[in-house]
Specification:
3-stranded antiparallel β-sheet; 4-stranded parallel β-sheet; binds adenosine-3'-5'-diphosphate; Rossmann fold; single chain; alpha/beta; 7 strands
Length: about 290
């Protein structure tokens, strides 16, 4: 069900999507999407490491070949299934295809549930997701102004942000029906030991890379190198749409920046709200005891 909402957003099954990159046609395309058994989807709640996965997956699937990440913009190299670019580029992607999506589990197209397509789900500490999103809303002209950090936190906790509540998204993708089709990784593990996480991904995909190829992928996918890759740092997007003078898309690339934004009171409120929503699930995260 599609309802046209505020100026910047469309509403789809109760979730808010930016009109800049989604429309009725793209969501229809998504609903009818035909997944192949060898497709790979990186699923993320926004600001959890999507762009990073768009850099990692092509070389992992093609023996370490970095040509695609050096020559094709990230949005066409590993497209979002639900965005307007998808119908234009999906057929041009070599098999096995890698794609990304911000969709919750229950909204995946019917072919997802009958195919064997695999999923890598990237989770990031929601406090850092919130901070990253706050700065993104300031630099992206196609999103509403975030207001103060406290106001934006309230919207985030209420799910009045892109793709709804973080907790709903995370819980939806813990569905036991997914079995061995899904690999869970965290942004924080990738920060700590990218090489180790890439080896887990390769193992999950039943693939191997030589030590040299793996080293070169790890090196290429560092924050520093991605920041200078014009195919990935969003410098191809006009300044009127994304103003990097206000904030870079590849902004800080660290874990724990939330400590520079949260007051102790806000931290207590945020932690309590997230814990309450997750209390009936047995999901454990590396940041739980921070
Ligand atoms: P920050 O705003 O905290 O820097 P997404 O791609 O899902 O929109 O997420 C964007 C976030 O991922 C940004 O976080 C961005 O800097 C971070 N990111 C992207 N590539 C990264 C990398 N190679 N290393 C660390 N962080 C990365």
């Amino acid at each position: 069900m599609l309802i046209m909402g505020s100026f910047n957003y469309i509403h789809y099954h109760g979730l808010m999507f930016p009109k800049e990159s989604h429309n009725e046609k793209s969501l229809e395309y998504f609903e009818k999407f035909n997944l192949n058994d060898d497709d790979l989807i990186a699923i993320t709640y926004p600001k959890s490491g999507t762009t990073w996965m768009q850099e990692i997956l092509p070389p992992l699937l093609r023996g370490g070949d970095l040509t695609a990440v050096k020559t094709i913009p990230n949005w066409d190299r590993v497209p979002w299934m639900e965005e307007t670019r998808a119908p234009l580029v999906m057929d041009k992607i070599p098999s096995p295809r890698a794609m990304v999506s911000h969709m919750p589990y229950q909204l995946m197209p019917p072919s997802f549930f009958t195919s064997k397509a695999k999923v890598i789900y990237v989770t990031r500490n929601p406090k850092d997701v919130l901070v990253s999103s706050f700065h993104f809303h300031k630099m992206a002209s196609f999103l509403d102004e975030p207001g103060t950090f406290e106001e934006f936190t309230d919207k985030f906790l209420a799910g009045k942000v892109l793709f709804g509540k973080w907790t709903d998204h995370v819980k939806s993708w813990r569905n036991p029906d997914l079995g061995e089709r899904i690999l869970y990784v965290t942004y924080e593990e990738m920060i700590q030991d990218l090489r180790g996480v890439l080896k887990r991904m390769l193992n999950f995909l039943g693939r191997q890379l030589s030590t040299e190829a793996l080293d070169s992928v790890v090196n290429h996918c560092s924050f520093k190198n991605m920041k200078t890759n014009n195919m990935s740092n969003y410098s191809l997007v006009p300044e009127e749409i994304m103003d990097s003078k206000k904030s870079s898309f590849l902004r800080k690339g660290i874990s724990g920046d939330w400590k520079n934004h949260f007051s102790p009171e806000l931290d207590d409120k945020f932690t309590a709200a997230i814990q309450e929503e997750l209390k009936d699930s047995n999901i454990k995260f590396p940041w739980d005891d921070e």
